[in-house]
Design goal:
- A hairpin with a 4-residue loop joins strand 1 and strand 2.
- Helix 4 (133-144) crosses helix 5 (155-169).
- This protein is an alpha/beta fold.
- Strands 3-2-1-4-5 form a five-stranded mixed β-sheet, with helices on both faces.
- Helices cover 40% and strands 12% of the residues.
Length: 204
């Protein structure tokens, strides 16, 4: 990726773990949004964090926007899967600001997006709506043998699971999962325009 001032260098999955490569050319990006540390899972399976500095104030929104703009231009995602704010926190301040900036950028780029609340993502990954960060990371390792560099807050792991959820929802899963956990994704409002692409064989 292009280096952008103020960002941590993009991280990658552990060298001991294979990347989970997308089948059929489908390109999904996963985004776990935060003003201080946004987790990103790129369509090629790599992950990194957009780390911002508190002293930069609202300019942190520009750092996040610019990083996402560069990623979208380079990777040309067909779908973005974004972790939504919890239902009880829909008026959340700082993270809500990030959501607004990111949604605007996705709309400008013409990238459809789906919002997945944390409880649904955790139920999909771990069959437990209150799974903690360690359990989410362990589930990723069990599912695909992946580990994450510099991910104490679980931002990259959550973004990775969001990308996986998008592939599952569009009928191109990255790995095997119990059907009961896949069924949790039916709660999500997936963009119909994207959902139809893999089924009808449209060139992506």
């Amino acid at each position: 990726m292009t280096a952008i001032p103020g960002l941590i260098a993009p991280g990658t999955l552990s060298p001991t773990a294979d990347r989970v490569v997308a089948p059929g050319g489908l390109r999904v990006i996963g985004l776990d949004l935060s003003l201080t540390s946004t987790g990103v899972a790129l369509p090629d399976g790599s992950t990194y964090r957009i780390k911002t500095r508190q002293k930069d104030g609202d300019k942190r929104l520009l750092v996040i926007r610019n990083s996402l703009r560069a990623a979208l231009a380079e990777h040309r995602a067909h779908l973005a899967v974004v972790e939504d704010l919890p239902v009880h926190a829909m008026a959340a301040g700082r993270t809500g600001h990030v959501h607004g900036v990111v949604k605007a950028e996705l709309l400008d780029a013409g990238v459809p997006y789906a919002l997945v609340v944390p409880a649904t993502l955790k139920s999909y990954a771990c069959d437990h709506g209150n799974a903690d960060k360690a359990r989410m990371a362990a589930a990723a390792y069990l599912a695909a043998g992946v580990e994450f560099v510099d991910d104490r807050g679980g931002d990259q792991c959550d973004a990775w699971w969001l990308r996986a959820a998008g592939h599952d929802a569009l009928g191109q899963p990255l790995f095997g999962m119990p059907q009961a956990q896949r069924d949790r994704l039916q709660k999500v409002d997936w963009p119909t325009a994207v959902r139809s692409k893999p089924a009808v064989g449209v060139a992506l």
